[in-house]
Amino acid sequence: MADGIPQDEAAAISIGLEGILYGFSLLMFIGTIWALTNKQRLRNINRPIILVAILLLILSTAHMVVDMIRIENGFVTYRDTFPGGPAAYFADINEPLFIAKNSLVVFQTLVGDGVLIYRCYVVWQSTRIIIVPSLLWCSSAVSGIIALYRALQATSNTTDIYAKATSQWVTAYFSLTLATNLVGSGLLAYRIWMIERRVSGNRATRGPTMHILRVVMDAAILYSVTFIIAIVCFAIQNNGELVMLYMVPPIISIAFYMVFIRIAIRKQNLSYPSARGGSTGETERGLRMRPLQVHISRLAHNDGTSAYGTGNQGRPSLGKGDSVELVSPDAHSP
């Protein structure tokens, strides 16, 4: 038996929180499109990333619409006709809109984690390194689909999502999704840190890769904390899990968008020094700030090139034939 707030109250609270987060995600979507297209030629725009951003917006919008319809059905349309009233309606795991909204959650988490795994591949340039996160991703997809199927086929305890037949697969889905994000983000952060460590000895100031590392970690923390809270609430059979589940789609979108927006802001700050001349840290050190072009979409690891990309002879290299290339949003890959 579930503890905590009743299902109908949880639904009312959730739709309000989801609406606020959806508004933020919509603004950040606009910012992401601006970051990827501002001052870019049409042929240089990163179309795959824009398509993923649009897909995440569509999924989070569809989830918001489905939740609004459920709120209307539960509190208005079927308030007096559904057996058990609004609380029973929102607890019914057989209800078609319940299956639809959770299908959108599963699909959106798979898209978000898939992009993360691809980023790991781009940074490491190795298929071996993404074997574990890919297996976790596949397991998460299977457990999510089975959980939805069990909910759809449930003939008894249809108002109890914590029944064993369903709960074990929901728990597996949450856990595997969290594990996929932690492993993928960990691999990505470790690679960026290693690259920064190799090049840091050859320059006086900290490079832009440390900023990228912080952005990646912030997005991972936001995503992971959401699922940790959901797992804990579900494990103790608390309806707070339902509140978190409403918030997952916009949070996934926000975590995706914030990476591009923050790096784009960093790029502008580095490319166009302020009127006061350079950054504060460099001014204190008595260093002159020169315009620095920072490309932001992905880290590519190449052999035999300069640490600052091609065409920069005379600049310090990483040693051992390794280098860092920061590729801008005009690169045609996520």
What does this structure look like?
By secondary structure, the chain is an all-alpha fold. 66% of the residues lie in helices and 2% in strands. The protein has helices at residues 7-37, 47-77, 85-91, 96-124, 131-153, 164-200, 209-235, 240-271, 280-284; strands spanning 298-300, 325-327. The protein has a two-stranded antiparallel ribbon with strand order 1-2. Helix 1 (7-37) runs parallel beside helix 8 and helix 4 (96-124) packs parallel to helix 8. The longest helix is centred in the middle third of the chain and has 37 residues, at 164-200. The radius of gyration is 23 Å and the shape is globular. The relative contact order is 0.15. The model is unreliable at 274-334 (pLDDT under 50).
Which terms would index this structure?
334 residues; mainly alpha; two-stranded antiparallel sheet; 9 helices; globular; disordered C terminus
Instruction: Describe the sheet with the most strands.
Output: 2 strands, antiparallel
N→C terminal distance: 44 Å
What's the total count of β strands? 2
Structural class, from helix and strand content?
A: mainly alpha
Q: Categorize the overall geometry.
A: globular
How large is the radius of gyration?
23 Å
Mean pLDDT: 79
Q: Would you summarize the structure shown here?
A:
By secondary structure, the protein is mainly α.
